[in-house]
What we know:
Elements: H1 3-24, H2 32-38, E1 53-59, E2 64-72, H3 76-103, E3 109-120, E4 123-134, E5 141-150, E6 155-156, H4 168-182, E7 201-203, E8 207-212, E9 225-230, H5 231-234, E10 281-287, H6 294-303, E11 309-312, H7 314-319, H8 321-329, E12 333-336, H9 349-367, E13 373-374, H10 383-391, E14 395-397, E15 401-402, H11 405-408, H12 411-419, E16 427-431, H13 435-450, E17 454-455, H14 458-464, E18 474-475
Parallel strand pairs: 2-3, 10-11, 10-16, 10-17, 11-12, 13-14, 14-18, 15-16
Antiparallel strand pairs: 1-2, 3-4, 4-5, 5-6, 7-8, 8-9
Helix pairs in contact: 1-9, 6-13, 9-10, 12-13
Amino acid sequence: MKRGFVFVIVLLIAMMTAVGCSESKDPVLEDEAQEDERAAYVISDQPTYEYGDPNAIIDNNKYANCYLLYPKTDSDEIDDAIDGWAQKLYVESKETIDALREEDDSAEGELNIQYNAFLVGDYAGVEEIGFFSHTAMAHPQDFVQTFNIDVDGNTLIRNDEILDVKQESEVLKLLRNKVLTRFPELKGTVGSIDGTWLRNIVLNHKGVDVLLERGIQLPSYIGLQKFTLTYEELGAAYILPNRGSTPAEESPPEEPPAEEPPQNAVTTENIRTDLDPAGPMVALTFDDGPSNETPRILKLLAQYGGRATFCVVGSRVEAYQDIARQAAAQQCQIIGHSWDHKQLTKLSDAEVGAQLARTNEVIYRVTGQNPVMYRPPYGAADDRVKNISAQLQLALVNWSLDTKDWKTRNADQTYRAIMNNVGNGNIVLCHDLYAQTAEAMERVIPELVQRGYQLVTISELLHYSGNAVTPGQMYNSGRRG
C-alpha cells in the first residue's frame, strides 16, 4: 500500500478528534489550552509499564466480554493482592451480566481495564483504570484502583504511609485549588472536601497523582480526572522515607531515540513465491501483544522457517516498539486488534474509525507495514463495523481454530487444541501475552513443520487459497475448494 493511505488515516484521526472536541466543548472556557487541560483523564496513549510484566484476564464470551490488564511481579504477596482484585472484579462483572440474562437473554456487557505502572526509586505506583458497561446501563461505570508498593520489601504501602494524615487539610486545600483551576464553574459546588477524595492516589515521577471518579467526587459529565500533587507542593506532607535519591530527583528511564520505520519493510502484500501452492498451509495468529513473550515465538518461527500474523493492540505497540520491529524484520505480518481492545460493536462510528485508524498509524510508524486487514476484539463485528472497515479499506479476519489459551493458560492444553484439530487452511487463534502459549509453541511449531504444514501469514494463506482480500469482508479460514 502507499504512504498516502497512512496520510488519510492520520487525517481521519484528526477529523474524529476534532468532532469529539466540538461535541464536548464547554462554553465556560474559551481558551484552547484550557479546553485541553479539562479533558477527561484516560490511560496514556503510550502506557507506562516500568514495573512488572503485563498480565491479563481475557474472556471472549459472546455476551460478557472482558479485557483486564494488570502487572505481574516477582512478589507473591503483591501478585496475590493485584490478581485478587482483578479476579474479584471479573467475577462480579460476569455475575452481574448472568443475573441480567435471567430476566433478559439478550443482555450483554463489557469490562475493559488498562493500567500504568511507574517505578519511582525503590517504590512503584500502579493505576488501574477502565469501565464496565451493560445493556441495562445508561452510561458506563468507571473503575479505578491504585496500588503503591515498596519494591524492596515486597509489600503494599498504605495511603497514610505516603501522606501525613495530620496535614490532610493542607493536602485537600491544594487538591481543591487544582480542581477549581481546571473547572472554575465548580466553585459553588466543590466546597469542603474530605479524605475520601484521597482514596485513589498513586506514586509517579512528578509527585502523587490523585484520581477522582465521575459521579463520586466530581459531576458525571466531567468524567474521570487525574491531578498531580508534586513533591515540591506537598513538602513535609509527603512522608514516605527516601532511600538514596529523593522522588523529585527521580525521572523515568530515558527512552532510546526513536528509530525511523524500516525502509522497504515487508508489507502485507509481499507474498513468498517459494511456497508450495498445493501444499498444506496453516496461519498461526497471536492476539493482544506485543509482549515480552513474543520474542520466544519469533525465535521459533525463525528457526523453522515460518511466519505468523501478530494481531497487535495499538497502545502496546507504543510500549513494545523494539519487539514489533523484530516481528516486522522477520517478515511476519502485523495487523491491528484495535487501540485498547474495546468491543467495536458498542462504540460510535467515530470511535470505531479512531480505534482502527490510530492502530494502523502506529503500526506503520513503528514497523513500516501498512495493514490491509485487522482482527476485531472478541471477533465481534456487525454490518455497521464492516461498513466502516470498508470505508477505511480494511478487511476483517477471525479464526477457524480457537485454542482458548486465554482461558486454560496451560501449555499442554494449547498444544492439544492445535495438534488434535489442525487442518489445511486453518487460521489458528493464540495469544502472545502468556508464557504458557510460548511454551506450547516450542512443540507446536516444529511438529506442524514435521507434518508438512507451511507456516504462513494470513495474507499468504488467503492468496494461495484464491481469496481476494476485499475491504469490509470477514475471513475465517483459507480453505480451498
